[in-house]
Amino acid sequence: MKITWFGHSNFQIESNKKILIDPFFKGNPAIKDQSIVDEIEVDFVIITHAHADHLGDTIEICKRTGAIAIANFEIVNHLTEKGVKAHPLHIGGKKKFDWGFIKLVPAVHGSSFQDGSYGGYPAGVVINIEGKNIYHCGDTGLSYEFMMIGETMDIDLVMLPVGDNFTMDVHDAAIAAKWVKTKKVIPMHYNTFDLIKVEKDEIIESFKDFDLILMDPGETVNM
Ligand code: NI
Ligand code: MN
């Protein structure tokens, strides 16, 4: 499978299905060519929480492609009202497919829409595809939830926020990776804005015991 990082928390997983997570393209300073939003092909769009830098261009992408949005019940209600096909989940629940599953897990954060309305509980997501478990943590601080996930699922790869200020910093993120019991780490949610600037050397140092996949926005890796 191929994994592409579009900067911030925006990833595409390409396998027999195309899955987008937190599709923040328009207004994302990390992406030079924001017109990707008009071309990208996708089957499922997962939204971890309602903040604008994660909900992003979900509505536009789902309407153009017919992709199914997957998020918590509150976000799905919001999207369904706007005419998007969507499937509601909530924390701890999963949707099974013939190719794997999508499961929402806890995140410690907020989840309001731009207008301040309630966006439900924030989430991370575990995507089971090609027999691998890929864990995208959404926005979160360090919590014992990581230990719970490490105890209950075999995680092959984790995407961890490292930008500090709104989420964990690199130090806490390395503890989270240890608790999740995975070697493969992709850092995210950093260097998009001034408030979440992190030196790459600091990331490399913090994750020296891990198989660190340090991506540039727009880069694709094969898994
Ligand atoms: Ni957020
Ligand atoms: Mn965020």
TrEMBL record:
<dbReference type="Pfam" id="PF12706">
    <property type="entry name" value="Lactamase_B_2"/>
</dbReference>
<protein>
    <recommendedName>
        <fullName>UPF0173 metal-dependent hydrolase C0601_12090</fullName>
    </recommendedName>
</protein>
<dbReference type="InterPro" id="IPR050114">
    <property type="entry name" value="UPF0173_UPF0282_UlaG_hydrolase"/>
</dbReference>
<dbReference type="GO" id="GO:0016787">
    <property type="term" value="F:hydrolase activity"/>
</dbReference>
<dbReference type="InterPro" id="IPR036866">
    <property type="entry name" value="RibonucZ/Hydroxyglut_hydro"/>
</dbReference>
<dbReference type="InterPro" id="IPR022877">
    <property type="entry name" value="UPF0173"/>
</dbReference>
<keyword id="KW-0378">Hydrolase</keyword>
<feature type="domain" description="Metallo-beta-lactamase">
    <location>
        <begin position="7"/>
        <end position="189"/>
    </location>
</feature>
<dbReference type="InterPro" id="IPR001279">
    <property type="entry name" value="Metallo-B-lactamas"/>
</dbReference>
<comment type="similarity">
    <text>Belongs to the UPF0173 family.</text>
</comment>
